[in-house]
Amino acid sequence: MRFSPRTTLVCLITLHFVAIANVDMWARETPHIQMQNGTGEFIVDGRPFLIRGGELGNSSACTAAEADRIVPNVARLHVNTILMPVAWEQIEPKEGSFDFSILDHWIDVASENHVRLVLLWFGSWKNAFSNYAPAWVKQDTRRFPRAQAADGAPLEILSALSEENRRSDSRAFRSLMHHVREKDGESETVLMVQVENEVGYLGWGRDRSEDANTLFRGRVPDKLITALAAKGRLSPELAAHFDPHGRTWSEVFGDAADEVFMAWNYANYMDAVAQAGKQEYRIPMYVNAQLPAALESAGKYPSGGPHPYYLEVWRVAAPSLDFYSPDIYWPDFEYWMKRYEIPGNAVFVPEARMDVASFNALYAYGEARAFGFSPFAIDAVEATDSPAPGIMQVYQLLESLEDLLPAAQAEGKTRALVLHKTSPRLTQTVALGGYLFEAALSRSWPERAVIADHGAALILESGPGEFYILGSGLTVNFIRDPDVDSGSAGIASVEQVTRRGGNWTTERWLNGDQTNQGRELLTDPHQPRIYRVRLYAIPSGRH
Ligand code: DGJ
Fold first, then answer.
1. At how many degrees (to 10) do helices 163-184 and 101-112 cross?
2. Three-state DSSP class for 144?
3. How many angstroms is it from 307 CA to the middle of ligand 1?
4. Where are the beta strands (DSSP E) in 433-502?
5. Which residue among 56, 177, 221, 513 is the one 20 to 30 A from 18 at the CA level?
6. pTM assigned to the model
7. Closest-lying ligand 1 atom to the alpha carbon of residue 376
8. Which residue has the higher pLDDT, 423 or 25?
9. Is residue 127 in contact with ligand 1, taking CB distance under 6 Å?
10. How far apart are CA 388 and CA 371, in angstroms?
11. Is the shortest distance between the CB of 325 and ligand 1 below 6 Å?
């Protein structure tokens, strides 16, 4: 059969568009991160998805049977996504022979319970150490070299410089992603993957193996110097040391050289692993960081991990990673959140303290515009506990707002307030929609004693002068924002509301003693609730 040149051209153009459409379809249908107005949205099934997460304890997903016990309980906590470890030793007990039966059962049970999964790849490293690598890797220290301490002692940490380590981990991870795509690519129970866990070198400053010493004495790759020099802004810690005119690691990074060297090598390794996985299944992949404690030196915390000081080095080395996440156990939750709110980085907290999770979650979604939050050891919480666990109450309320929140986040129409009895700050104020919201911890009446140890609220602006405030433990005053005009603020109404299937119900109209005679919002001291507050502006000079 012969075609005229015109027919051939039409066919080629059609094929071209079909190919583009397929690529688009792939990009549209697979979970992915989308930056919207500076907010990182997680798109699942074509819509922004808010992860109400919970991470399992380290040994909780090591048998199939545990899924039957744990998943239904966690699902009742209004968690919509479970973060679960998948260990290299579990899936590749013998080199080259893979067993995914435990994971498969977890995927099946999660799917039956309408819960999604984030897989945590415990491959070469878990909290710096290599204890989840299979025995055939751990035992063969010649083939799979370790990082070394300053005195030459080999550590229980696989070397980030070894080609063989990287190749074997990448192969296992690639098999995992191949399997997940085959089993779950249609139903998308598995949404994304954390590559390794809290990596970095524990010991004096940096790996002192012969290979590491040789590389460290050599030149810093031009790619790194050029990319850092081209960045408008570096973190203060990196900017304080970076000299683009130097050649060696010590010349270019001064006192930070050991740690930046480790960051570069870990990031390159992790990029290779993530890239291998994405060749099989292109879903978001991220890394999590153990954060430095105050005054702690590198090596006491995992040196070279993806914490904020040297994150720019990671971003140059690891384009296959979609975003960087903090595990926040330190008290200053807000400070660490802010350090990850950097241009282009979608905000997700894979691990956080359970005892204050219900407060910090509101801060994460409302103020840091996170697409997800996840307290650690969720399987230790019982859905049958009475009163209901705090995070369960907050997640239940957030669930009722989940179709409203992402758009509000992306439009800059959310804020949050968090106060603790132990913090030096007595009040906190944020601005939204022409008003200031000034919060203090709930007090008793008439004694005026503080009666809440913690208070938090997420504020969502739903229209001019109309706000939904989800929280507890706070008294909130409303002030006209002086940056907008010089008027004052009045409260038109305060309702305690619930929302089901997109429909709002007013449970109580609050006024009189319940609003301090129309002057403030008094949230319940302990029980998280949603309030609808309508405000009006009183122009200055008129009464
Ligand atoms: C951080 C780690 O990433 C988790 O796996 C777990 O070990 C917690 N610390 C604390 O137990």
1. 40
2. coil
3. 15
4. 435-441, 454-463, 466-472, 474-480, 488-500
5. 177
6. 0.94
7. 8
8. 423
9. yes
10. 24
11. no
**Are 357 and 34 in contact, with CB atoms under 8 Å apart?**
no
374 lines ligand 1 (CB under 6 A): no
pLDDT confidence tier of residue 532, bands split at 50, 70 and 90: very high
Cα of 470 vs its chain's centroid, Å: 21
CA quadruple 88, 93, 97, 102: dihedral, nearest 10: -70
| Amino acid at site 511 | N
* Pairwise CA distance, residues 492 & 63, whole Å: 56
Give pLDDT tens digits for 165-178.
999 999 999 999 99
Of 376, 378, 379, the one to substitute when testing ligand 1's pocket (max ligand atoms within 8 A of C-beta) is 376
Burial classification of residue 116, based on how many CB atoms lie within 10 Å of its CB (0-12 exposed, 13-18 middle, 19 or more buried)? buried
Tell me the backbone φ, ψ of residue 472, rounded to 5 degrees.
Answer: -160, 165
- 329-361: string of b/e by CB count within 10 Å (b at 16+)? eeeebbebbebbeeeebbbbbbbbbbebbbbbb
Residues 6+ apart with CB under 8 A from 3: 11
- The Å distance, Cα 327 to ligand 1 centre, comes to 8
Are 87 and 62 within 8 A, CB to CB?
Answer: yes
Q: What is the mean pLDDT of the chain?
A: 94
DSSP 457: E
Strand 146-148 with 154-158, pairing: antiparallel
The residue type found at 305 is G
SS3 sequence, 473-484?
CEEEEEEECCCC
70: its two tokens: 């744990």
Sign of CA dihedral 157, 161, 165, 168: positive
